[in-house]
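In line with agreed milestones, the collection of sequences with tokenised folds has grown. One record among many is set out beneath this paragraph:
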Amino acid sequence: MLSKLKAKIYCEDVVVNKIGLFLSLIALSACGDNRDLSRVDAPDIIVITGHVITMDPKRPVATYIALEGGSILSVGTGDHTALYPDAVVTNLLNQTILPCFIDSHVHVRELGMDRIKANLVGVENVDEIVARLQAKFPNPEAGKWLIGQGWDEGAFASNGYPDRAALDVAFPDNPVALESLHGFGGFYNGQALGIAGITAETHDPEVGDILRREDGSPTGVMLTLAQDLVDTHIPKADQKKLEEAIVAGLTEMSEAGVTSVHEAGMTGEDVKAFRALAARKALPIRVYGLLDGNDTTLMDRWFDQGVLNDSDDWLDIRGIKVFYDGSLGSRTALMAAPYSDKPEAARPTERIAPEALQVLADRAVEGGFQMAVHAIGDEGNNRTLNIYETFLSEDTSARWRIEHAQVVLPYYYERVAKAGVLSSVQSSHAVGDSAWAEDRVGPDRIKNAYAWQTILGAGGRLMLNSDLPGEPWTPMETLYFAVNRQALDGTPKGGWYSNQALSVAEALKAMTITNAYGAFQEDALGSLEAGKRADFVVLDADPTQVDLSAIKDIRVQQTWVNGQPVYQAD
């Protein structure tokens, strides 16, 4: 596990003899089973030189940063030797140092768990799904659940949802459960449906749909909460497996330059695993937790005990992630007017009653919790704001968030700016949805969809993140999508509604200092300033200077957390 971190450091300029011991101890830590690098006997002061982009408007660029312990001692330009004559110096010539990348909406446990699932990203039909499953599970033991993830419910909703017939033929002795790309659909074979007791006579749940053949029998596709009818029968991972998945996911993210994440929708089991890892100092990077607000039992417990505020910010749990509506691709998002394409196929979903959301918000205010509501459709966003404004009319410092803010009504922008509500958006979603989004909402409503510049222009704050693992998620991909509004292959030419694209400076701000602000951590994270935590990344090129099309090709050379290197490229 730890050897993957490759925790090494290349020092071209060694000023004191302590560096040999420092490197030896770092390498020794990377070879052991304990991920805690904070106990390494590091030199007192480390100076790192290079092209430093600070994200501090008072000093936008610098030539060195000085570290002491886990904090930044100073950031400056010019000769540092007089200030720190005994420091260990690392020269990173022709490399760019940036503040920590904070991914403010992730499902990192799922990222780790997905490594043991069949990857279905990009499949276009059932035959491709079967082929991917057979490649992942060539000789499955009879009765073992076969799990996959990544088929695009938006694309399939446009072209026709799949039928389980081919799954039944290919896997007659194994239950199959396949989660969609964004989690709003599940695809199951007959074995899985049989275990769950789902037949033509089974009624749809109150929130969710069982798609059916002409004879009424289930096709195998279950939308939104109908998935729970089957998923409750899938054997759950124990805490050890959850911890392994979390560490694997966080480690992979550190290698991409992420030093802090906001885990969106922690279950009770997730919380236990994260807290156990934090207690052992085994979290590779920092975590800000948003609890599963749709779980009333979990929230009752947390409202009784209060927020978790770690003074070192390794694990804070202060947010509440609530699913309000569904997704645009599956036509389950709440829209103020009918869908523009196939309105008869739409199944708008309200996953929590407004009254229940109101009560949750009220208790959040009392307990000092931050609300973060998933809202995709314009009516879903409108109803969420209606509730928010009840509590934020006199207090705009609560930093409540709307996750996705994908399609909004024209007066959304002024309302969120006035209330201090953060719009937490995903650049990959705009690109991934571009093939069908305008079909769903039409040429007029699309002008208020994925409208990042309009949010900023009205004075709103924009958080930029990945919502991994559904789409390409590395920071350089997130940045590329934000400034180009294009897929990685450069399509469409000129970008999709490029008037809403962000500048590199705007996107970097949304990925660093604003994301830190969205977790009440801007005094410690998000920019390179004296007194802040020494979390930063080293890139092989400056994203503010390269051609926009080349941003996706920038590579992470090093990742530092708390003044320690946790990743070094080969």
The two ends are 17 Å apart (CA to CA). Residues 424 and 463 are 5 Å apart (CA to CA). The longest strand covers residues 88-99.
